[in-house]
């Protein structure tokens, strides 16, 4: 009796000291790392991994339906954006899902931290040895050949079979994103003379370079000061890109003599971000984005979000950025981002989850704009390829992708303007007829090089060549779709200002509105975006995967918005 009792107690103690055995099923796998990554060997067993666990959202389909309702002008619910709490009610995992995942983690001695407002993302830190055991994985060190940066990833992982339907995916595991988002612009020192411009500039202001007066004349952008402080622009910055306030003051004193040169932006910081004001530490991209939002969207408040390198989200800080804005009671009415990657760099589950975050922002009344990229049909940056390379996040239907134009009378497509069709998302309803028309025009050209059933991008475009900026106490010009995104964002912010002043809601997710009101944009019908040893796609009448629906006409957008 005593011996048998002792045996039972001992077995119980042994069982309670180990996790309960669970049947594991492969959850995500890839045959090999993507091009440009090589495996160096197994990761050290005691290296600590920062992992994110995405829980299954309870009703994402319901949120997307609500998003379309509040964003489609013909809908009876148009403009009735959701509150923070209403969005989170759709997104939050069920109590059953949350309990199932946290119980499994507890069995393994792992404590999780909630890192999203709705509780659909958890963060854990565990050594490689434990990660390999829990996920039946082989975490290894991979090197990105062109940068030399190293990351720890696995080509396959499993989760307990009974967590299917509760745990969406684990990240970063099979996603091989670059260490940082690609920087879209480079600066060229301007050797000509810089002239002060009045705000009543004629189109000839565009002769030597693009400045605010040029854009005001070209797109009919007003100089009337905005009045609504609740309507503001969020400008995102990554990779230790600092926005210099003294440079902005110099820029305004030259190109916006009608407003105070002390007009500036405010700074928010996440993931160890900062905003060092030493001129030599300023970033080309950060200066461009702040100078052209403050310089065009007269008196619309601008917040520069500096995202540091302490992010462990595995996607450049994009996920942390989205969750930061979603956690605000009053998020920006417009967010512009001039960074991105190739779609293939992210696993489809991670790409979908980020896209869902942008849908949540759209449902709350925020327009999310991304530069489409600068590689034509070869991706975010020009590179060698055979098949066309879609960019991310432009393929996400819930962002507005902005391509680039050049020239003025008429505007033409900039040859670097990234555009094409997503391999991850199908053609959404808001652009189905426009895409069908373009495919009919295209015929068999480029057949087999792109996904003809994919979401087409960009959605719109704006000037993207020879933007003059103040940088490192001198004048430079820059090219890229990252010039176009803050320009278009500024136009939308000024429309929103008038909407709010009239007691109406902001535009929010733009795409249904834009595709229903394509006449509010100037159609760009010439130019192409070569790459992959082809001429790429050609701009033509109507929407095209080079310049989208075209460039903004401020008065027409205002009229389409009901003002």
Automatic annotation (TrEMBL):
Q: Which reaction does it catalyse?
A: Release of an N-terminal tripeptide from a polypeptide
GO cellular component, as recorded: extracellular region
Ranges for domain Peptidase S53: 209-563
Cofactor details (free text) = Binds 1 Ca(2+) ion per subunit.
- Quote the Pfam families the UniProt record gives: Peptidase_S8, Pro-kuma_activ
Q: Name one GO molecular function term.
A: metal ion binding
A Gene Ontology annotation in the biological process aspect, one of them, is:
proteolysis
Q: Which cofactor does it need?
A: Ca(2+)
Task: Indicate where this protein is primarily found.
Answer: secreted
Question: Where in or outside the cell is it found?
Answer: Secreted, Extracellular space
Binding-site residues, Ca(2+) = 523-524, 542, 544
Q: Does the keyword Nucleus apply?
A: no
What keywords appear on the UniProt entry?
Calcium, Glycoprotein, Hydrolase, Metal-binding, Protease, Secreted, Serine protease, Signal, Virulence, Zymogen
Enzyme Commission no: 3.4.14.10
Q: Which catalytic residues are annotated?
A: 285, 289, 482
Give the range the annotation lists for the signal sequence: 1-17
Q: What does this protein do?
A: Secreted tripeptidyl-peptidase which degrades proteins at acidic pHs and is involved in virulence.
Q: What is this protein called in UniProt?
A: tripeptidyl-peptidase II
